[in-house]
Amino acid sequence: MAAAAYEVRSTRYPVQAFRCDSSKPLHHWYATPDPADPWVEVANLEATLPGHECPDEIIQLVSHKDSMSWIDSPGAHDNTTGTVANLELARVLSGCRLRRTVRWLFCNEEHTPWTSLFAAQEAKARGDRLMAVLNVDGLDGKPDAEAQAGRLLHVVGYSTEEGRPLAELIAATAKRAGLALEVTVFRKEPVNDDDGMFIRAGYPTTVMNSGSFPYGDAEYHLPGDGPERVNIENLRQSTQLLLAAIWELDQQASFTL
After folding, report:
1. CATH number at residue 186
2. Which of 208, 205, 203 lies closest to 185 in space, CA to CA?
3. Is 155 in contact with 138 (CB distance < 8 Å)?
């Protein structure tokens, strides 16, 4: 990303792996670590494409780059898909002259604490104007029956009323872009995941992009979450949708959604 002229910053934080609680269903085995458990350092990676007209107005993209710390899972859907989508968006946009700044965050969310929390708090402390935050996590993850039927799905979840117009804009963009995706907007009641960290830090215009809700991937948090289960066409169109949404957000005269 540095070679593509991005400003790249690495910030390191201590985290712990989750413990295992075998009394839970396997995909929810994670349990709070003991304070005496080992701590390791992980890095948040941030890349910035400065805007040329409104550089202080930031479109923030987020994806967690780690897989499960409590079970041996490849993490193809959760969250290689989101990481790859954001890398592709960065590749495509590197040659574009945008009005507003676009910033990417690659963080850790399958360890504790979630490092998006630190990035969100630091942005707030700096007074960053994050006009829209798009969490990209678990693209194409959907029930096996939907996958076998060949359905291309994308869901956009919002947890605040400020996030609803952003979610609806993304859904409407799919139609304008002529994509074959079936896009659903839903109210995401828990303020959690990486989008929740930004909401809690004071950035309510935040949404989560995923493949289904409730999340229906049969190999969620399991060893079978391998690349052979990913529908590349679904992932490609979801990435195109995010690209089109970023473009629409950037071209708006004002950020009144």
Report:
1. 3.40.630.10
2. 208
3. no
Indicate the helix (H) or strand (E) that contains 56: strand 54-64
Residue 256 lies in a domain: no
The structural domain count of the chain equals 1
Given a contact cutoff of 8 angstroms between Cβ atoms, the answer to whether 8 and 46 are in contact is yes
Residue 213 belongs to some domain of the structure? yes
Which of 1, 43, 37, 2 minimizes the C-alpha distance to 16? 37
Report the SS3 class of residue 65: coil
Amino acid at residue number 4: A
Would you give per-residue pLDDT tens digits along the chain (257 residues)? 888 888 899 999 999 999 999 999 999 999 999 999 999 999 999 999 999 999 999 999 999 999 999 999 999 999 999 999 999 999 999 989 999 999 999 999 999 999 999 999 999 999 999 999 999 999 999 999 999 999 999 999 999 999 999 999 999 999 999 999 999 999 999 999 999 999 999 999 999 999 999 999 999 999 999 999 999 999 999 999 999 999 999 998 877 76
Q: Is residue 2 part of a domain?
A: no
**Can you give the residue range of the structural domain that contains 180?**
7-251
Does residue 144 fall inside a structural domain?
Answer: yes
Q: 């965050």: which residue's tokens?
A: 105
pTM of the model: 0.97
